[in-house]
Model the fold of this input.
Amino acid sequence: MTIEIRKAVETEISILLSFEKGIIEAERPFDNTLKEGEIH
Done:
């Protein structure tokens, strides 16, 4: 398996933000330092 690391392009911002949101929602039950509401 080869892993490629590259800079994101502007058209990927919405996808990356939804990925970030999913990670935060998954981690919130295990980390009480994550504030309620929208965070980045």
